[in-house]
Write a structure and sequence with these properties.
Layout lengths: L1 H21 L16 H17 L8 H19 L10 H23 L7 H20 L1 H6 L2 H18 L4 H54 L54 H9 L5
Helix pairs in contact: 1-2, 1-3, 2-3, 3-4, 4-5, 4-7, 5-7, 5-8, 7-8
Amino acid sequence: MTFSIHLFKLARINSEIKYVMHSICRDAPRYAYPPVADIHLWQKEMIDRLQSWLADIPFTPSNEVISKICETKYHEMMILILRPSPGIPDPSEEMLGRCFQHAIDLLRGFGELYRQEALLYSRLIVHSIFLSTLIMLHCLWRLPHVASEAQIDEVVADTSISLNILSSIGEYWTEAKRARDCIHELSGATVQRLIKMRRLESSSNSTRQGKNQTSASTGRAQRAQATNEAMELLPAPCPDAGIENVPVNPYMDDYDANVDSMNWLNDSMPGGFMDFSGAPDFDTLMWEVFNANSG
């Protein structure tokens, strides 16, 4: 009963978040929530309420599983309020970065429940796993600092949690299979991008080091030539020596040839399932996946 009351409190917060941020119908009835003057201030207050709710989750060793379920509900609500929505279609990078971390925490929480055989299969679980994985991948494409700090093995492990659970649920519902196939395609493209980013960064660092060494050699030669001009002990080397001979990355395809290590995240994924560089409509995407013709 204690947990039921606590989850009911979260359901009320959930209702308000969906009404204020995610409702596309603005013809509100008289009994609806009052209009929000500053949605960003309201968002901050809702985040504080959710954090207070998390801190009040009852916990004892005997109810560890249900406490973990409550934690996953908390991460679901944080994703709901931080992700792109009709209310805030283009969140700040700070908010998206926080949303990215909550998506990872949610996937890992589901993974822990899955390993303990305590994850109850439902279509809501499929929806939550699918959305959190999309959010994670979207942030890896949208936020350069997130992509540069992400560990590729951790990204693979987190997407594997999603794929494993969706594959298991897919034995019962075809929607989970379609979600799994979508995640498989998008995660594969994202990991390839991260690998190429690391190679571009490595190549750029090697070029920079070579240029610094060349500049240092040029400076020494010029100083020697200035003090020993008559003897011409050291001719001044070419300032650009060695730069033109930097090897081209053999892993770059035609698309990547025009993408450098600083702006590749700002481009779309040509031919991909969705454009991760903009502000995607996650709800429409998920509706299309879950309501696609199985035939």
